[in-house]
């Protein structure tokens, strides 16, 4: 054996189990005679274990003889301890003399050897020793043992992580573990991370290359062939030149160069491939490819290492492309790597451009996908053009530019659309091109068996057309079935919009909030759209829960969407920003509303309006009206109304936007702006249930704002809003009407209605948390605060000594309100019912002319300013 291999064992420690098996827990050798054999491949720590035995025998005063060759056996002692290292290197005569020591009663004998190829004399000796002590077999170190060694080094932040990498690279072979950790300098350990485990300590490969170069040439050639990927059982010229490869494999295992199962150690494979001259390496790689193809065998796993090591061969490139095509539907990340490796191996790339763009799209690299498609679609006869068109349309949709995706399908044309025609229908409906959508729907259907995905996209097109057609009853059933089929298919193929998102949007626009939530939950649980679609589905679920007046559920869905490990597309960013606006508006959190509006206003500049973005646009329209920023939305609203007009003002899509325009008109105090939208709701109410409910609610709002509060009409309208999922809107209408009702019983009735519609209200409801009578524009709210934190006008009234506008009883109630008590708590404190407390609060609102919760609290502080504690304690909580 080459000296380089025999010197490895002196510098590494064996597995911890070996110490306990041979030495026990004591600090010295156990008393009595020790007869044992230690078996292990080269570099497993046999010599280190003998060194420890020698020091422990010496500590006990026992004379030790260390034998490493035949000459050491010339005169053996009759007492003491004899430790034999590398016994497989000794001749039969020497082994016979050592064997005789077993019969010497005062001699301890420990023999270490490599077990792969041993002589008959050594076999007899080992069997004799095994009758006295179980053999100590040394093998690879475990991750725990490597971590324990790594923790002894300095500046190792994560020894467990380092141990995982080391064991994976070395197979746990002790000599390689020792080399690895010894080369891990302090600076390199500080830079180590689990995400960069391909980096090796400096100098390690050079050290290993030096040791590998000192091997017998035939043995090194065997290792190099295994590193390249040759199968030793197959007929190939380089393998045949080795002579007897089986004997060489035994020798390699014996030398600690291969794992016990016959695999080459990964670290040694890397050292061989990275330090062998390129001409020699590439010659062997081509010989491997020749051997496999001549035998009609696929390159399989051999293709990737060949490409990694710089081999350019069309056969390797073709194998990698085939592997990438198989991985693309379910493992886009792997597919992207394989396509890149195929190009590195010599593939031109044009044939796979559409598939590479698809992989980039699914991984969230919209820019990368766009660059690939730009180079592909300018070709006169672009290959795989249908896939390229689908990826391009989906990419533009993610960017919030549906019109550009529809342009791609127009360029393709109905005659070439084939299986992409249903997706073209969706894109064209989204951009208001009804004629183009109908042409695509009439295009000749694709041939072939109807797969789950093909059925899903066909149903998706039918359902999308139905949303602008004369059969609204078919919309939800068709789109829900499309969603079910897409989920069942497990497809990650790009689509302009997921069928689950379309079904949810149709349900949300139709007031079927629970159906929307159910469809979205099923799609999310089923993994529809993979990672690329998960965030959008979660955000739509958040929208559904926001409309259901479930703010905590909405925020939970938003948090889950934010945790998705995928780049945020512009259209999803707009949806997220609009959710922030909607939640802030519904909780009357004005500072949060202002911040959210500013972010959303900028986000809106990055996208174009399409049919599927009307919900966030409507929410922003209401917020803009409240903040007196409507002018900023006029171009976007004009685009939306134009789109709906081109589609014939379809009720499903138009009604919610008209309702939000009515709310915006109310907040802006511009009746002229409100009238056309109210009229549109009335027209649509003849055939659309949601429109009928919203039209009734609009009439009720107009009457309330004019001071005509008809409790029956208001309550019917408010509860009607709740039936279509708009509980918050209904509660707000009833609360506003209660603040303007003249009759006491009407106020009581409407407040009770508002409380019933608002989730979590009941007699325990905080009186100041009842739905606000109105949302006054911010310009009408005080811009600065005066004395005691009051608005300047109120502060001046307090300074002028204005007399109280409340009765003694009402002042008592006001004190409890400012203390933050609920109706029930006020009733218990004043020995009245919660309903009576509620009546008092309503009367106080009217007397003080408070139009919002914060204004009511400000007025109450003014009324009771003389009773304020002098300590300057914290003010009562303001909802």
Automatic annotation (TrEMBL):
Superkingdom assignment: Bacteria
PROSITE patterns given in the database record: HTH_LUXR_2
SUPFAM superfamilies noted in UniProt: C-terminal effector domain of the bipartite response regulators (SSF46894)
Region span, Disordered: 758-813
Residue ranges with Polar residues bias: 793-806
Domain HTH luxR-type: 799-864
Keywords tagged on the record: DNA-binding, Transcription, Transcription regulation
InterPro entries noted in UniProt: Sig_transdc_resp-reg_C-effctor, Tscrpt_reg_LuxR_C, WH-like_DNA-bd_sf
Pfam families to which the protein is assigned, alphabetical: GerE (PF00196)
Protein name: LuxR family transcriptional regulator
């Amino acid at each position: 054996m080459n000296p380089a291999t025999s010197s490895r064992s002196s510098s590494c420690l064996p597995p911890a189990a070996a110490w306990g098996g041979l030495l026990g827990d004591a600090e010295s050798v156990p008393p009595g005679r020790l007869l044992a054999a230690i078996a292990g491949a080269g570099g497993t720590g046999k010599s280190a274990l003998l060194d420890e035995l020698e020091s422990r025998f010496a500590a006990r005063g026992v004379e030790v003889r260390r034998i490493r060759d035949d000459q050491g056996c010339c005169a053996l002692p009759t007492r003491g301890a004899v430790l034999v290292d590398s016994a497989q290197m000794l001749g039969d005569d020497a082994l016979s003399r050592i064997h005789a020591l077993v019969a010497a009663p005062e001699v301890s004998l420990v023999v270490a050897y490599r077990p792969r190829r041993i002589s008959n004399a050594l076999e007899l000796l080992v069997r004799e020793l095994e009758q006295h002590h179980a053999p100590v077999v040394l093998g690879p170190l475990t991750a725990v043992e490597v971590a324990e060694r790594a923790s002894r080094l300095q500046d190792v932040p994560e020894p467990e992580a380092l141990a995982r990498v080391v064991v994976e690279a070395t197979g746990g072979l002790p000599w390689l573990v020792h080399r690895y950790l010894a080369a891990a300098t302090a600076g390199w350990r500080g830079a180590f991370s689990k995400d960069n485990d391909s980096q090796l300590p400096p100098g390690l490969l050079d050290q290993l290359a030096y040791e590998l170069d000192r091997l017998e040439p035939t043995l090194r050639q065997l290792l190099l062939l295994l590193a390249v990927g040759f199968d030793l059982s197959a007929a190939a010229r380089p393998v045949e030149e080795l002579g007897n490869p089986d004997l060489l494999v035994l020798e390699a295992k014996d030398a600690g160069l291969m794992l016990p199962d016959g695999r080459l150690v990964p670290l040694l494979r890397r050292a061989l491939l990275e330090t062998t001259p390129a001409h020699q390496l590439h010659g062997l790689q081509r010989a491997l490819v020749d051997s496999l193809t001549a035998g009609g065998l696929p390159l399989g796993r051999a293709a990737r290492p060949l490409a990694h090591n710089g081999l350019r061969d069309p056969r390797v490139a073709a194998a990698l492309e085939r592997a990438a095509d198989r991985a693309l539907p379910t493992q886009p990340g792997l597919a992207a790597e394989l396509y890149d490796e195929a190009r590195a191996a010599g593939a031109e790339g044009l044939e796979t451009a559409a598939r590479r763009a698809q992989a980039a799209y699914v991984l969230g690299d919209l820019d990368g996908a766009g660059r690939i498609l730009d180079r592909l679609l300018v070709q006169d006869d672009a290959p795989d053009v249908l896939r390229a068109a689908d990826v391009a349309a989906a990419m533009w949709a993610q960017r919030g530019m549906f019109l550009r995706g529809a342009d791609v399908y127009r360029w393709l044309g109905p005659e070439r659309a084939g299986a992409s025609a249903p997706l073209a229908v969706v894109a064209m409906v989204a951009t208001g091109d009804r004629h183009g959508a109908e042409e695509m729907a009439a295009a000749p259907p694709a041939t072939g068996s109807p797969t789950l995905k093909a059925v899903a996209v066909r149903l998706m097109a039918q359902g999308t057309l139905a949303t602008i057609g004369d059969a609204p009853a078919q919309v939800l059933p068709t789109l829900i079935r499309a969603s079910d089929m897409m989920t069942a298919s497990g497809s990650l193929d790009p689509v302009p919009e997921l069928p689950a998102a379309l079904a949810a949007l149709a349900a949300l626009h139709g007031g079927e909030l629970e159906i929307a939530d159910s469809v979205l939950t099923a799609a999310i649980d089923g993994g529809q759209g993979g990672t690329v679609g998960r965030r959008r589905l979660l955000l739509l679920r958040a929208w559904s829960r926001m409309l259901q007046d479930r703010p905590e559920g909405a925020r939970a869905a938003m948090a889950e969407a934010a945790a998705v490990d995928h780049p945020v597309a512009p259209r999803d960013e707009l949806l997220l920003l609009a959710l922030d606006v909607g939640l802030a508006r519904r909780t009357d959190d004005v500072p949060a509303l202002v911040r959210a509006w500013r972010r959303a206003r900028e986000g809106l500049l990055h996208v174009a309006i399409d049919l599927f973005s009307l919900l966030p646009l409507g929410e922003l329209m209401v917020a803009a009206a409240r903040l007196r920023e409507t002018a900023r939305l006029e171009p976007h609203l004009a685009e939306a109304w134009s789109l709906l007009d081109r589609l014939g003002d379809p009720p499903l899509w138009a009604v919610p936007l008209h309702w939000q325009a009515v709310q915006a008109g109310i907040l802006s105090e511009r009746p002229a702006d409100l009238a056309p939208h109210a009229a549109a709701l009335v027209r649509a109410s003849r055939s659309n249930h949601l429109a009928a409910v919203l039209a009734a609610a609009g009439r009720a709002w107009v009457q309330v704002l004019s001071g005509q509060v008809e409790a029956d009409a208001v309550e019917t309208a408010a509860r009607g809003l709740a039936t279509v999922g708009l509980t918050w809107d209904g509660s707000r209408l009833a609360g506003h009407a209660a603040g303007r009702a003249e009759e006491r019983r009407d106020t009581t009735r409407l407040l009770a209605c508002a409380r019933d519609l608002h989730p979590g209200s009941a007699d325990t409801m905080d009186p100041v948390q009842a739905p606000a009578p109105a949302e006054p524009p911010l310009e009408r709210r005080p811009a600065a605060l005066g004395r005691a934190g009051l608005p300047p006008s109120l502060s001046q009234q307090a300074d002028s000594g204005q007399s109280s506008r409340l009765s003694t009883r009402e002042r008592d109630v006001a004190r409890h309100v400012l203390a933050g008590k609920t109706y029930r708590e006020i009733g218990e404190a004043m020995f009245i019912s919660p309903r009576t407390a509620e009546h008092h609060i309503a009367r106080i609102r009217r007397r003080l002319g408070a139009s919002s919760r914060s204004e009511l609290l400000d007025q109450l502080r003014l009324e009771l300013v003389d009773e304020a504690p002098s300590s300057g304690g914290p003010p009562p909580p303001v909802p």
